[in-house]
Design a protein that fits this description.
Elements: H1 2-21, H2 23-34, H3 36-44, H4 47-55, H5 57-65, H6 67-70, H7 81-96, H8 104-116, E1 118-119, E2 125-126, H9 135-154, H10 167-174, H11 176-197, H12 201-216, H13 219-234, H14 239-263, H15 274-280, H16 290-297, H17 302-316, H18 321-326, H19 336-355, H20 374-380, H21 383-418
Antiparallel strand pairs: 1-2
Helix pairs in contact: 2-7, 2-14, 4-5, 7-8, 7-9, 8-9, 8-11, 9-11, 13-14, 13-19, 15-20, 16-17, 16-21, 19-21, 20-21
């Protein structure tokens, strides 16, 4: 075990640390996570449609009659989610560079609009790429706007006003030159795509990413994501925070596609969504440790019993850092194997259960940080999904049990020696 830990620490830690410290990836992660509440609001406006289609009859007729009112907020939430994402990503990246200009986010939005919106001959805006399809363009737009601002500041290509000028006015002038550069670059890219390729920049990006998007929603991809996430946690690194910068955009795009299908009266097609990850594969937190917490509460070892009591309430609502750092699970030779490999097995079971049609697919996004089963049901409106989420916790408890008993025996020896 010590040799395995030493080998992993030697080769994995540098890669994980580099990813964790990569400011662009972290800014993307912060931005994507930031828009989740907005997506949940938009998704919940589609819940009545899903319920109406499920029940049929008078309920479906009533929902269809009032559908324009019920789904009205979706036009300003999920349908333009990339606008919120570009703002959050730009602000996060600017903060990492200590850029204090409050208009950087606005400049990123302008770049994103130039790249993503097309204008018809009648002057109407075509905004179909401001939704999930525009998330990857939002990342590019945010990085472009912030990097242009950073380089202009570094080379003194900004208009500086006296200190006596109000900050908002000073920011307006200091961003003027970077903003001109942003507009020129974005306009040139959009024009080239339209005139040379007869398409839009977001469509070019989607064409490039198409293989990655399709392969991400697969059993091997889900298992790899969970394995790496759990392994990073073992070494004290926030696994989900590091890996989500890679998989979250794909998962959110899948969830949006499912929600759009439900709204159109069609069936969802994607398994791997943001809600699937947190509602099934992270029930009670990374490693699905609720059963472990209960065993610790009932332990004869005083130290484990104390940690279990402290961690039980947070764990019920998906927050298990007190256990990960308190047990600890980090660098723990007893718990490393079930914590890393158990969730991988659970991920395989859950993916196959949904892909086979045994359990309903995610229909939209649902609120997180709920006790086991609640988010899964809200996500799918399928009672079997709630059962599956609870089954995950039970199965993980079985995985943890023999390793926990070894850890408990070791802890009891230590307590006996110190008494």
């Amino acid at each position: 075990m010590n040799k395995i830990q030493a080998w992993l620490q030697k080769w994995l830690m540098p890669i994980a640390t580099a990813l964790e410290n990569q400011r662009h990836l972290q800014a993307i992660k912060d931005g994507i996570v930031g828009i989740v509440p907005i997506i949940i609001i938009g998704s919940f406006c589609l819940v009545p449609t899903g319920i109406g289609n499920l029940i049929g009859g008078g309920v479906q007729e009533w929902v269809n009659a009032h559908n324009s009112i019920i789904t009205f907020p979706t036009y300003f939430t999920t349908n333009i989610m990339s606008l919120y994402a570009v703002l959050y990503i730009a602000n996060s990246l600017a903060k990492s560079y200590d850029i204090k200009n409050v208009l950087v986010g606005a400049s990123a939005i302008l770049v994103h609009l130039l790249l993503s919106v097309t204008i018809t001959e009648e002057g109407a805006w075509t905004v179909s790429y401001l939704g999930a399809e525009g998330l990857f363009v939002a990342m590019i737009s945010a990085i472009l706007a912030v990097e242009v601002m950073r380089l202009c500041s570094k080379h003194n290509l900004t208009i500086k006003m006296p200190d006596s000028v109000p900050p908002m006015v000073a920011d307006s002038f200091s961003i003027l030159i970077p903003l001109v550069i942003d507009v020129v670059i974005a306009t040139a890219i959009a024009t080239l795509c339209q005139n040379l390729g007869g398409t839009t920049f977001p469509q070019v990006i989607m064409n490039i990413l198409a293989p990655a998007i399709s392969s991400m929603d697969s059993l091997p991809a889900v298992m790899i994501v969970i394995f790496i996430t759990q392994l990073l946690w073992v070494f004290g690194l926030h696994g989900a925070a590091i890996t989500s910068s890679v998989w979250a955009p794909f998962a959110i795009a899948n969830a949006t596609a499912n929600a759009a299908a439900v709204a159109a009266g069609a069936d969802p097609t994607h398994v791997f969504t943001f809600g699937f990850y947190y509602g099934f594969l992270q029930v009670s937190g990374s490693g699905m440790t609720l059963g472990l917490v209960i065993m610790m509460m009932l332990s004869k070892a005083k130290s484990l019993k104390t940690i279990g009591r402290v961690g039980i309430i947070p764990s019920l609502f998906g927050v298990n850092e007190p256990i990960i750092f308190g047990a600890p699970i980090i660098m723990n030779p007893f718990l490393m194997i079930p914590f890393v490999f158990g969730p991988v097995i659970v991920a395989a079971i859950d993916y196959l259960a949904m892909a086979s049609g045994l359990v309903g697919l995610p229909l939209w996004e649902a609120p997180g940080f709920l006790p086991p089963g609640f988010q899964a049901f809200l996500l799918t409106l399928d009672w079997k999904a709630a059962v599956l989420a609870i089954f995950n916790v039970v199965l993980m408890t079985i995985f943890y049990y023999p390793f926990f008993k070894m850890m408990e025996a070791d802890e009891l020896k230590k307590e006996a020696a110190n008494s």
